[in-house]
Specification:
alpha/beta; 49% helix; globular; 9 strands; nine-stranded mixed β-sheet
Length: 330
């Protein structure tokens, strides 16, 4: 890969208790930092594990790496703070997740794609990978169309302009022009920023040339909390921008109210039908995933996917109803 030192590059990695992944991630990025002249900021939200110590070890070996404290803890604030303090010399912002893995040429391809397309933002597809029974099941669910609903960044994409995708690279001038991330959003802040980018005339390119590896939650409880918050974040987006949910989101949003009808089943069995259909759908999806993987353990992936949907729908309505009661504002 040839050197690319045109335009300053700021890489930002938000962290909070990421000792399991941060060391290997930074080690893998050092060759890119050396050949590109990029600077890298780890913005830590107050980790109580060994994250900061592991970052400090790398800063001693690689002056391009800096540890920055993020008192607000959340990822949106981490990126905003890093850009505010270290972004003046940068043309490009690359946002990476600590809970993920990347090909060696990942950042190089992002830059090539941005320059080739003229896009202000380049987003990427992702593949979920897990270890252990539940994390593998959750990963299989997130990789399946039943679990991800055919989201553009979850399926194998061909390069095209999109409305939203998983954030990877952004032009710093575009990021600053729209005000960066809204730090009132602890989840779904990427989709909220994409809405403002598009409204301001900036273009978002989904690359088909590279992908990231995502390491999902390890338990159903953690998965439920994550997707509950995702649902809340989507509702906040809709309320803030007075937008309409997409077709996939409408289907999932309808799940929680329909399942609640089951409490009326003593009045008539028909009220239990939506819940029974959901259970049947999870079972069929699990069977399909197990068949595709050639592994009977994939059967529980249907349960994981159903958990994602139910938690997202519950979070969506929790936020929607709560905000509307307070006047519909974020």
């Amino acid at each position: 890969m040839t050197e690319d030192r045109t335009g300053g590059i700021l890489v930002v990695i938000p962290t909070l208790n990421e000792a399991e992944h941060i060391g290997g991630l930074l080690d893998g990025l050092m060759p890119f930092l050396e050949r590109s002249g990029a600077s890298l900021v780890v913005a830590d939200g107050g980790s109580t594990d060994a994250t900061s110590a592991l970052v400090a070890e790398r800063t001693a070996r690689c002056p391009a790496i800096t540890l920055l404290q993020n008192p607000q803890r959340i990822q949106s604030a981490a990126v905003n703070r890093a850009v505010a303090e270290r972004g003046d010399a940068a043309e490009w912002l690359i946002r990476l997740d600590a809970h993920a893995g990347y090909p060696a040429d990942f950042a190089d391809i992002l830059l090539q794609e941005a320059r080739a397309t003229g896009a202000d933002s380049v987003v990427v597809g992702m593949d979920a990978v897990g270890e252990g029974v539940w994390q593998r099941a959750i990963a299989a669910a997130q990789n399946s169309r039943f679990g991800n609903g055919g989201a553009a960044h979850r399926v194998a994409p061909k390069g095209r302009f999109v409305d939203h995708g998983h954030h990877a690279l952004m032009r710093v001038s575009a990021f600053r022009a729209v005000g960066g991330y809204d730090t009132d959003f602890g989840h779904n802040e990427d989709a909220e920023l994409d809405h403002r980018l598009r409204a301001a005339g900036h273009r978002i390119w989904l690359t088909g040339r590279t992908r990231m590896t995502y390491y999902p939650r390890r338990s159903l409880g953690a998965l439920m909390r994550q997707y509950f918050n995702f649902g809340r974040g989507r509702a906040r987006n809709i309320l803030k921008h007075r937008s309409r949910p997409g077709g996939r989101q409408l289907v999932v949003a309808a799940l929680a109210p329909l399942m609640l009808l089951a409490v009326l089943a003593p009045l008539h069995p028909a009220f239990a039908v939506p819940l029974l259909l959901w259970i049947a759908g999870c079972a069929v999806a699990g069977a399909a995933i197990a068949w595709g993987l050639g592994d009977p353990r994939g059967l529980i992936s249907g349960l994981a996917a159903g958990t994602m949907h139910a938690a997202w729908s519950t979070g969506f309505w929790r936020e929607m109803i709560g905000r509307l009661r307070r006047g519909g504002t974020v």
